[in-house]
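Posting for a labmate who doesn't have an account.
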Amino acid sequence: MGKEMQSNMNSMYMEQVPEAIEAGKTNKNLDDDGRPIRTGTFVTASAHIITAVIGSGVLSLAFAIAQLGWVAGPAVLMAFSFITYFTSTLLADCYRAPDPITGQRNYTYMDVVRAHLGGVKVQLCGIAQYGNLIGVTIGYTITASISMVAVKRSNCFHKHGHDVKCSISNYPFMIIFATIQIVLSQIPNFHKLSWLSILAAVMSFAYSSIGLGLSMAKIADFVLVQMKICFNLGIGYKFKCDKDMRVPMDTLRSHPPENKVMKKASLMGVSTTTMFYMLCGCLGYAAFGNNAPGNFLTGFGFYEPFWLIDLANICIAVHLVGAYQVFCQPIFGFVEARCQARWPESKFITSEHSISLPFCGSYNFNFFRLVWRTAYVIVTAVFAMIFPFFNDFLGLIGAASFYPLTVYFPIEMHIAQTKIPKYSFTWIWLKILSWSCLVVSLVAAAGSIQGLAQDLRTYKPFKTMN
């Protein structure tokens, strides 16, 4: 969960050079740094965190809880939720530098690292950040294709029975998803389409709620069956029956101080998403036990009502169509800005061409943008075809990005900002927390890599992967 929140909250591509304020003049529409005045509040910040974190990963939580059990599973989830909240508060204090209230603003995660740590750590942050974004876009291609396949399989099972194999290849649906992304990637100023975030949030809550509802229905059905058995067998078997029952910060206004508002928003966001994650994981585990599928909407823990399963998977696919763009736009912006700075005289890179489209008016396109963005989408689709394994790929992305972006950099920047003495008590326990999370991330990454290797050895192209 931590990696999803940090990547969504801190990875958005933002303009680097603020508008200049004319000397001696003030403008009520501009903030203290010359940018358009920020209007974000505790409510909007909390909403951004919640909608960013609750994604398709919630569908694998039942499987994760099943691997750890009733005690360790929720305990681990709570522990990492606390760590995520704690490091988020440290990061909130680093938004301004050197003072957390009156210092200069830093607009991106890399700017924050540059202001507090500098040197090679800025490049390491960029590698971790953009590597995570690339991994997520590949993961979204896999997940979207699995959901599209699940719609066809659901209808196949409904028509021919649950014992039919209904094997369908993921590859055609990955190609369909990539084709859609190639078109969407050419839309200029895509990040300004606010309706996309609203649609993605609605879709996210829709399929998560459907999954929760189906899990609750399965649990209720199991309980009713057990109660019927108990009444039929008599009160002497009551004990046995009871035992068997499984029961983003730069948008904030300046006052009050951004770091204080962001800490409250982080508490609200992490608390809400943790509760939602607990419900999805625990109710899913209660419904399926140790046989919980890797994705309880596409792994066919549920077969009926088939139309509801179809609706949930359509919601996942629609959500990921937009989410893919949210994660790839920072990569597009970064590469295009670097290329324009490196080759400012190249007409291929810098020239804009206008064409007229029916019902859309004038459209500006750039040849470099057309070639580069198309190539990026194709490459991510090819990688998705090579590694079409939902759970292990999701685990690898989380393990690779959680430690550097969620733990290491926030802790190191906090130590630098507050000038904590080396080998002091606070310095020691912060380092122990950082190293412990590093060990956990390495173990998780090793497990995911082993799982991917095993999946590759047994992979059959026309067997759908969940």
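Reply:
Got it, the structure tokens are right above this. The CA atoms of residues 98 and 225 lie 63 Å apart.
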